[in-house]
């Protein structure tokens, strides 16, 4: 099991930047997939970015070119660097970890942090 704690959220002006951090309670070196999700008021939780244990990244269209997900295995931490922020980026951001138990059939354990708020406003 792994516990996840997000930090780094806050109020930022449009066009500004924030770096979110996700601190894990144990090594994330072997965690198959980690990512960031967000949920805006009145909307479903959506995927923002993911990073595999091998360092492969993936982004939702709205985040591509503006956000960068990275990991520091030595610090057991995953980051989400956000730039060119827009008001529509306002949401609660959640860290996620998926630990694969079985490949065929696919079976994994999902872990979630409690979130950090990001507000983009003038």
Q: In a nutshell, what does this entry contain?
A:
With about 120 residues, the chain is mostly beta strands. Helix content is about 0%, strand content about 55%. It has no helices and eleven strands.
3D structure, described in words:
With 122 residues, this protein is mostly beta strands. The chain has no helices and 11 strands. The strands form 2 sheets. Strands 2, 4, 5, 6, 9, 10 and 11 form a 7-stranded mixed β-sheet that branches. A 4-stranded antiparallel β-sheet has the order 1-3-8-7, with no helix packed on it.
Secondary-structure blueprint of this entry?
Layout: E1 4-7, E2 10-12, E3 18-24, E4 33-39, E5 46-52, E6 57-59, E7 67-72, E8 77-82, E9 91-102, E10 107-112, E11 116-120
Parallel strand pairs: 2-11
Antiparallel strand pairs: 1-3, 3-8, 4-5, 4-9, 5-6, 7-8, 9-10, 9-11
Low-pLDDT regions = none
Nearest-integer average pLDDT: 95
Q: Give the radius of gyration.
A: 14 Å
Main beta sheet: strand number and arrangement? 7 strands, mixed
Counting DSSP H or I runs of 4 or more residues, the number of helices is: 0
DSSP summary, beta strand count: 11
Globular, elongated, flat, extended or rod-shaped: what is the shape? globular
Order of helices and strands: EEEEEEEEEEE
Share in β-strands: over 45%
Structural class: mainly beta
User: What portion of residues is helical?
Assistant: under 10%
Cα(first) to Cα(last) distance is 40 Å
């Amino acid at each position: 099991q792994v516990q996840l704690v997000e930090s780094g959220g806050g109020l930022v002006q449009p066009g500004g930047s924030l770096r979110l951090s996700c601190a894990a309670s144990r090594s994330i070196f072997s965690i198959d997939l980690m990512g960031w999700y967000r949920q805006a008021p009145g909307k479903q939780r959506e995927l923002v970015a993911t990073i595999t244990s091998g360092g492969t990244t993936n982004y939702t269209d709205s985040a591509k070119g503006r956000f960068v997900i990275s990991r520091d295995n030595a610090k057991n931490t995953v980051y989400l660097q956000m730039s060119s922020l827009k008001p529509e980026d306002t949401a609660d951001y959640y860290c996620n970890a998926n630990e694969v138990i079985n490949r065929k059939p696919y079976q994994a354990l999902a872990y979630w942090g409690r979130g950090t708020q990001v507000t983009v406003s003038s």
